[in-house]
Design the sequence.
């Protein structure tokens, strides 16, 4: 069809301008445009970003009363604590660190599913990250009713009841959003945060406050660290080839 | 500078500019020095300097640089050039005739050249160059097409196409019926009648002034003063609400001019005689009617008493004389009416609303 | 050797002439090329070409991402399979070939047999007719012979059919055989196609956007008449008019010629700038599935502008500010369009475009600024002086309090102070400043203002009824404060001297009633007590509801409110006014109906008090106070302002900008400036105009944002340009929607409730989400009309959420109003307000329902009896299900349980059933039933089922489960508790 139209137009053009057609020499059919040169896939870099999150204030988590649901009380014989300010002395866990900007191209989505478990009437993990399009498996390991109420602002809201032990369902987020909060309406103390980003370069600080992001291509990036009550901090980081850049954050209490 | 501008602004108000142009017209027709090459150059330079300097004035610039108005600037130059050219040739010929030599046209007509290539080739080049000029013009100055007309927002001033602006200017002084129908009709009829009225065979095929002085002066008076000048005024000096603005004045939409026009009947019955207007239209307008009758019927007869005019009468015979005189007097109504308006606020000589007849 | 300069028989020098000719021809050629270029190079072509390139890049990137996504290994495996399959087929080539030959042969035979059969059939038909004809003749011989022929033919036809069918059958067999042999290959190829399909379609689209030869040929100058890719893109919009020369013509929008991506998704991320961005909210606008698809509504219908324009300036783009104007002038040659009545609405006022179609329903969904503006106008009472012929502003009671008994409530001195400067007393009040504004200059005019205010107070007190109130019982201030903050006063009232309207914008519901600060300096305590107990007793038309306060509660509230005082507003006095100034003002009014001498005599006959009262009445008429307040003597007075119904279409030159030149002369700038500085156009004319000629528009103390919201509405009040059928929501019920929404605005339901996703202003005062009054989404589908009727009449009769301290007030609605609200809720959900009685279900459903109720642990949130204190915080509770039968609609309960989130966004009710692609819901209960903890429930249910499979099948169907739950809630709870 395309070829036909092209020739029709050629003939018309030629006759319009009144230029006599030379010999009957057939012009070679126009070559179909070569497939576009694929943009070079962003090489999974060999660099990395590591750091430690510190927090000078030593205030500890507070205890949670689970009286509302006897099942929960039973599951937490030695009591439970909030996971807001947690980590070793002077260190801060549950901080979500990710590359906020500076990356170009797209990155393959991890085939591995992220898991958000509900265990002992608490979410595990309390803070986590996934890629856009990555499968999140949400599981209820408790023998009681939980509901997973996600409260995103850009993604679609959902609120799933999981009345039975070991129920699972899968969800994928289709837009990046830092952070999506999860809560359980039955057990108001339960909450979890999940960072949804376009790329695989994120990490959550461990109990000793450390984190590591691997496979970062060389470049200069803005790295953001997010904490649920202490807010966010950003830092410019330059990652060299096969080099590990340091980006430590200090969430000193506002004084 | 501002002082000069305000003087020019003042002088360009119609009562003064029209008087001034009448005087200048008389001087020009009488002058001989003007119709030489030097005179031509001086005129060209003067006009160009005037436009060139004036363009620095923002108000002047806005009006003159409007794409609609550019042809009128060109018209000024073109009319000036052809006027000068004809008079220049005419004066030269007159001198030759006086010296007993053949006219230019006569001596040139002895030569013979070929149509091709001499004529056609040069015409062809002219055509190409003219086309280039026209295309260039159309590219550089976009046609002033605007949005679809909006009935609630009329452009102010609302102007006719440039070639009708003279007629539109006449509307200021005459009833629309007169200015829009009768006078333009008479102009056309009169122009058609010229060959039948003007029997002076001198000047056929060559330029001359001396041998056709009256005819040329009369025609140029009608064409340059009463037609072209009014177009120029209508284009450049008439602003919002058809108010008059000097060339360097800002077109202020809120300008208000005092305007109380009165009819001849009111002037005579109320102001002079001090009695009220009579009820019947005939009695009321009697003076206007008498004046009109006098102007068109008696005046031509009285004028024959003048020796100069009697010469024409003798040459033309009564019919030609009267038709010619009627057309001439009609033409002269225009300046007469203009002056009466400016100085006496006269609205109409005859104002019979009963028949929609206004003069 | 040079040729002679001039040959004798030539007039011109032809060498020179030839040069002239050469140069002029060249000039003509160049100028022609220039002309073609000038004509061809339209800005929109450049934009389209640019967008094409950008889109191509985007697709290339997407294709790249797709390529990465595709698992190359999987493809390789399939390709390998295809190869081996082909090899296998090659081996059987001879066999396959034979089969295909047979198939071809059979095709021929089938064709032949088919032709034979059809020929025979046609003969048969003819002979059947001939037999009929023979019968008609009645000749037995003929009949017999015809019958014989017919019989023979029938036999032949039967044989033909048998042959044909045999061939057909054989052909099908051969075909199936071939397909069987090729099946493996085809399957592999299909899989490959599927894997590559997305990428291929992307690659095809990229190729379509490549600049191949035909792109250049098709878009070349002169060739672009055929089928250029760069072309003016237009849509015709029947029924949506543009007014041109006395006539309305259908719009023809060409906006997407430059705004190429407006109606397409995916061009809204970073890096996409106008004109290449997707329109925001494609779910609402332009996309084919939205309520405003591009090909039905176009662009200029809402945005304004010249529909047919393909040039930036002509289209009528309106810059949002001077900065943008300068930028546009530079980048796009922007010019003001003098003759275009409807320029594009500047971005901040875009929502004005909604009104043309949506005003009939009072609210415009999703147009926040315009909707806030409408509410502002309702509360400020714009319609009280300016006729605004839209449903939201017609048949609306006066917005201000009645002044018919004001003397019972406060003092004339306070009233004087108040009229002079209302915002000094209540910073958030809607009552505007009429006096001492910017166009009042000079001592004389100031004295005139004082005389006018004093006269108005005199008039109001002269006509006011006085009721004496006894002192209220003693109350406790701190208990009063608790009550104020918890029972719901804060839905409509503030009590905050520092509050500003702008801080609360756009949530203005809490300013529905007056800010109660300084109440102690304003009103009489006895009056306040009586008022709180029963507002309607004092003013039957008031919007203030009764909160059913006990005497003690009312007394506590009075104690609390009266404690708020400000000495600056106590012991006030009215100033002395020059009597002559007052008399001069009064005489002017007298002269309207009397001669100069008569008026002087009339005045002389009046006492001092009478003169004040007379001038007061005239002044009230002058400023139009009666528009907002009930005032004796002005019951039938006509509003004083200009009608605003078509203000948005008023030509710009009809707006009086006075001597102000630094404000752009546009419609929106005039209106907004007027909102912010209502008397500004008198600037420079203050002392030229007569006192009574000065502008009277009062100053509402609007903030920028408020002014913008109001301006958005006024700009939207345009002449009709849309046929009725094309306007929003033309259902028969839409009138019910409009009436309901008016009532909701009037009684400020959104101060407490979330209605149509707006409101619940009280949550700024009550922070615990559990204590918030309910979201009324889906109300019409949720509750029974009978119940709601009773409830709205007497909210005290029911208590669904006993833990709430906020009280639903008694508004004293009449039956008509309640029915309007019922119709409104029903219309919003497309329901009938009333339902017939449901039938009682069978035992099986009830048993399953009871089991499921336990399994889903519904009782964890829905208390079925008194709640143990402290077990769960009140905030986490859900309404008691014991009321369900009386309150809820039977047809709703199951639907709600099935998918609560689709009814009420943000609801705490979890979703137990997941929606499948086909629209059905799956249920998890079939798995849950096997858990040991639910074995009792299982056993009980099994009694009604033949087998475990049957039970599981039953439980796996969400329809069954939700219906059973509904039945249990409806019938089971009642018996069980």
Sequence:
């Amino acid at each position: 069809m395309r070829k036909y139209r092209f020739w029709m137009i050629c003939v018309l053009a030629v006759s319009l301008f009144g230029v006599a057609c030379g010999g009957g020499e057939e012009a070679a059919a126009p070559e179909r445009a070569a497939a576009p040169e694929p943009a070079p896939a962003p090489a999974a870099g060999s660099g990395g970003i590591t750091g430690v999150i510190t927090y000078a204030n030593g205030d500890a988590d507070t205890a949670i009363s689970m009286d509302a649901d006897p099942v929960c009380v039973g599951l937490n014989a030695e009591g439970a604590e909030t996971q807001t300010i947690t980590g070793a002395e002077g260190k801060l866990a549950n901080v979500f660190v990710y590359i906020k900007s500076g990356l170009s191209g797209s990155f393959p989505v991890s085939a591995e599913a992220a898991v958000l478990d509900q265990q002992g009437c608490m979410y595990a993990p309390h803070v986590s990250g996934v890629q856009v399009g990555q499968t999140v498996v949400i599981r209820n390991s408790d023998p009681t009713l939980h509901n997973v109420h996600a409260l995103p602002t850009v993604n679609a809201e959902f609120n799933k009841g999981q009345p039975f032990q070991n129920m699972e369902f899968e969800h994928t987020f289709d837009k990046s959003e830092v952070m999506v909060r999860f809560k359980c309406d039955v057990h108001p103390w339960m909450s979890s945060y999940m960072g949804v980003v376009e790329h695989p370069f994120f990490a959550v600080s461990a109990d000793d406050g450390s984190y590591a992001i691997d496979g970062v291509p060389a470049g200069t990036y803005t790295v953001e660290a997010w904490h649920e009550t202490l807010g966010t901090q950003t830092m410019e980081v330059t990652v060299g080839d096969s080099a590990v850049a340091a980006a430590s954050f200090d969430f000193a209490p506002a004084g | 500078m501002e002082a000069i501008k305000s003087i020019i602004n003042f002088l360009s108000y119609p009562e003064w500019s029209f008087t001034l142009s009448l005087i200048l017209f008389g001087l020009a027709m009488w002058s001989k020095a003007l119709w030489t090459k030097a005179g031509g150059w001086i005129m060209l330079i003067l006009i160009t300097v005037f436009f060139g300097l004036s363009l620095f004035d923002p108000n002047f610039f806005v009006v003159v640089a409007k794409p609609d108005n550019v042809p009128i600037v060109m018209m000024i130059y073109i009319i000036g050039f052809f006027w000068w050219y004809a008079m220049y040739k005419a004066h030269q010929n007159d001198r030759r005739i006086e010296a007993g030599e053949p006219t230019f046209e006569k001596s040139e007509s002895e030569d013979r050249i070929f149509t091709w290539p001499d004529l056609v080739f040069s015409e062809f080049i002219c055509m190409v160059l003219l086309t280039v000029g026209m295309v260039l013009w159309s590219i550089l100055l976009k046609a002033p097409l605007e949005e679809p007309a909006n009935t609630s927002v009329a452009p102010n001033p609302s102007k006719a196409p440039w070639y009708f602006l003279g007629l539109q200017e006449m509307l200021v002084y005459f009833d629309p019926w007169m200015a829009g129908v009768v006078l333009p009709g008479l102009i056309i009829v009169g122009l058609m009648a010229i060959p039948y009225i003007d029997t002076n065979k001198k000047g056929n095929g060559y330029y001359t002034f001396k041998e056709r002085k009256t005819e040329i002066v009369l025609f140029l008076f009608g064409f340059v003063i009463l037609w072209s000048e009014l177009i120029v005024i209508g284009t450049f000096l008439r602003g919002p609400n058809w108010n008059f603005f000097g060339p360097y004045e800002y077109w202020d939409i809120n300008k208000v001019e005092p305007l109380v026009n009165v009819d001849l009947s009111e002037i005579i019955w109320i102001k002079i005689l001090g009695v009220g207007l009579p009820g019947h239209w005939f009695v009321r307008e009697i003076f206007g009617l008498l004046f009109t009758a006098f102007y068109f019927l008696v005046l031509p007869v009285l004028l024959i008493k003048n020796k100069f005019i009697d010469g024409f009468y003798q040459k033309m015979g009564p019919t030609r004389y009267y038709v010619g005189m009627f057309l001439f007097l009609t033409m002269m109504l225009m300046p007469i009416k203009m002056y009466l308006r400016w100085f006496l606020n006269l609205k109409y000589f005859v104002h019979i609303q009963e028949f929609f007849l206004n003069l | 050797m040079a040729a002679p300069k001039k040959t004798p028989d030539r007039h011109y020098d032809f060498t020179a002439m030839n040069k002239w000719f050469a140069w002029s021809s060249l000039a003509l050629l160049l100028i022609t090329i220039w002309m073609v270029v000038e004509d061809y190079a339209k800005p929109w072509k450049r934009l389209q070409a640019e967008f094409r390139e950008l889109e191509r890049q985007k697709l290339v990137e997407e294709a790249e991402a797709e390529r990465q996504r595709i698992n190359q290994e999987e493809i390789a495996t399939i390709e390998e399979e295809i190869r081996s399959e082909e090899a296998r087929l090659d081996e059987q080539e001879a066999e396959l070939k034979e089969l295909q030959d047979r198939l071809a042969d059979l095709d021929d035979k089938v064709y032949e047999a088919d032709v034979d059969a059809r020929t025979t059939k046609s003969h048969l038909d003819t002979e059947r007719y001939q037999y009929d004809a023979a019968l008609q003749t009645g000749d037995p011989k003929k009949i017999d012979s015809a019958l014989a022929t017919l019989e023979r033919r029938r036999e032949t036809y039967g044989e033909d059919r048998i042959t044909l069918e045999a061939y057909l059958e054989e052909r099908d067999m051969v075909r199936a055989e071939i397909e069987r042999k090729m099946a493996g290959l085809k399957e592999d190829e299909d899989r490959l196609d599927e894997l590559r399909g997305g990428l291929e379609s992307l690659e095809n689209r990229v190729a379509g956007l490549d600049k191949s030869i035909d792109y250049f040929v098709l878009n070349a100058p002169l060739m672009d008449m055929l089928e250029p890719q760069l072309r003016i893109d237009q849509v015709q919009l029947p029924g949506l008019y543009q007014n041109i020369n006395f006539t309305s013509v259908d719009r023809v929008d060409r906006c997407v010629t430059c705004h190429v991506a407006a109606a397409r998704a995916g061009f809204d991320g970073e890096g996409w700038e106008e004109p290449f961005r997707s329109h925001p909210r494609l779910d609402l606008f332009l996309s084919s599935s939205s309520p405003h698809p591009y090909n039905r509504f176009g662009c200029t219908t809402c945005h304004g502008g010249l529909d047919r324009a393909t040039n930036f300036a002509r289209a009528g783009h309106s810059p949002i500010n001077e900065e943008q104007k300068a930028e546009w002038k530079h980048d796009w040659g922007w010019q003001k369009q003098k003759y275009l009545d409807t320029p594009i609405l500047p971005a901040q006022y875009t929502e004005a475009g909604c009104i043309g179609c949506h005003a009939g329903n009072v609210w415009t969904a999703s147009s926040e600024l315009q909707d806030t503006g409408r509410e502002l106008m309702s509360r400020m009472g714009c319609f009280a002086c300016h006729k605004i012929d839209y449903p939201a502003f017609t048949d609306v009671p006066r917005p201000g309090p009645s002044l018919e008994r004001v003397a019972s409530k406060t003092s004339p001195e306070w009233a004087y102070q108040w009229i002079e400067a209302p915002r000094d007393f209540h910073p958030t009040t809607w009552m505007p400043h009429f006096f001492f504004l910017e166009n009042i200059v000079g001592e004389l005019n100031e004295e005139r203002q004082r005389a006018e205010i004093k006269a108005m107070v005199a008039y109001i007190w002269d006509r006011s009824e006085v009721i004496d109130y006894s002192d209220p019982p003693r109350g406790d201030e701190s208990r009063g404060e608790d009550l104020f903050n918890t029972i719901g006063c804060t839905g409509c009232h503030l009590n905050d001297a520092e509050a500003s309207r702008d801080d609360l914008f756009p949530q203005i519901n809490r300013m529905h009633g007056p800010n109660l600060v300084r109440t102690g300096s304003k009103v009489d305590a006895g009056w306040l007590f009586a008022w709180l107990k029963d507002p309607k007793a004092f003013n039957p038309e008031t919007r203030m509801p009764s909160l059913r306060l006990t005497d003690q509660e009312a007394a506590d509230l009075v104690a609390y409110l009266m404690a708020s005082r400000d000495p600056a507003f106590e012991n006030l006095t009215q100033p002395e006014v020059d009597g002559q100034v007052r008399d001069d003002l009064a005489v002017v009014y007298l002269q309207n109906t009397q001669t100069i001498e008569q008026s002087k005599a009339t005045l002389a006959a009046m006492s001092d008090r009478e003169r004040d009262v007379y001038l007061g009445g005239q002044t009230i008429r002058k400023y139009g106070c009666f528009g907002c307040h009930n005032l004796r003597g002005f019951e039938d007075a006509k509003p004083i302002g200009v009608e605003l119904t078509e203000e948005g279409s008023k030509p710009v030159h009809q707006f009086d900008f006075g001597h102000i030149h630094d404000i752009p002369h546009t419609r929106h700038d005039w209106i907004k400036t007027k909102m912010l500085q209502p008397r500004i156009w008198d600037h420079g004319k203050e002392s030229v105009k007569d006192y009574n000629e000065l502008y009277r528009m009062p100053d509402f103390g609007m903030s920028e944002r408020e002014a913008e919201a109001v301006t958005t509405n006024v700009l939207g009040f345009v002449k009709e340009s849309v046929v009725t059928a094309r306007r929003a929501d033309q259902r028969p019920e839409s009138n019910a929607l409009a009436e309901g929404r008016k009532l909701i605005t009037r009684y400020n339901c959104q101060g407490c409730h979330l209605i149509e996703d707006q409101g619940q202003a009280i949550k700024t005062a009550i922070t615990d989400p559990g204590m918030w009054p309910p979201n009324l989404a889906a109300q019409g589908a949720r509750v029974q009309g009978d119940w709601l009727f009773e409830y709205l009449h007497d909210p005290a009769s029911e208590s669904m959420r006993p833990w709430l301290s906020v009280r639903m007030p008694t508004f004293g609605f009449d039956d008509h109003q309640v029915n309007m609200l019922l119709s409104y809720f029903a219309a919003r959900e497309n329901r009938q307000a009333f339902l017939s009685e449901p039938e009682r279900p069978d035992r099986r459903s009830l048993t399953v329902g009871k089991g499921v109720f336990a399994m889903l642990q519904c009782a964890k949130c829905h208390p079925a009896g008194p709640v143990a204190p402290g077990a769960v915080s009140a905030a986490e509770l859900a309404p008691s299900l014991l009321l369900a039968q009386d309150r809820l609609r039977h047809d709703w309960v199951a639907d709600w349980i099935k998918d609560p989130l689709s009814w009420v966004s943000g609801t705490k009710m979890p979703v137990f059933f997941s929606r499948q692609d086909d629209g059905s819901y799956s249920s998890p209960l079939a798995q849950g039933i096997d858990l040991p903890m639910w074995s009792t429930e299982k056993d009980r249910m099994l009694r009604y089922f033949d087998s475990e499979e049957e039970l599981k099948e039953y439980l796996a169907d969400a329809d069954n489960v939700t219906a059973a739950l509904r039945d249990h809630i409806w019938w089971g709870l009642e018996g069980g508790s």
About this structure: The two ends of chain B are 43 Å apart (CA to CA). Residues 261 and 344 of chain B are 8 Å apart (CA to CA).
